[in-house]
Amino acid sequence: MKRLVVVLVLLATVGAIAQKRDNQRIGKGQKADLSVEQLATLQTKKLTLVLDLTSEQQRQVMEINLEEAEMRKEKFAERKAKKESGEVKKPTADERFEMQSARLDHQIAQQQKMKEVLNEEQYQIWKKLKLRKAENGKKKMQEKGRRG
């Protein structure tokens, strides 16, 4: 009898875990279906709610977000094309350095653009949001068993 209860609890746990993973994938697919303009608009509206942006700031942040969304879509399409064609290979140490350096340069440039648009208080809040988002991303990658 005890064995039967243990087996039933184990099966219920496995079923719950499997359903949880399916729900996570649905959200990512829905976001990938949005256009560049839609992604930028949503991000701008979220920042407007948090930072209480003026209409001029909204316009400038929208331009920055549009540029970011276009870059992300291009990178995603590039990675997807490489994956489908089988050209995926492990980068060398120099290539990894170049990629990380380019990514950090881009982040610095975006940070400077946002600093020009936002006032000091808004900028500090924005920095905290970015930091929190980065920390959450690291936690999610660790949960999935990836590096981070």
From TrEMBL:
<protein>
    <recommendedName>
        <fullName>DUF4890 domain-containing protein</fullName>
    </recommendedName>
</protein>
<keyword id="KW-0732">Signal</keyword>
<keyword id="KW-0175">Coiled coil</keyword>
<feature type="signal peptide">
    <location>
        <begin position="1"/>
        <end position="18"/>
    </location>
</feature>
<feature type="coiled-coil region">
    <location>
        <begin position="59"/>
        <end position="121"/>
    </location>
</feature>
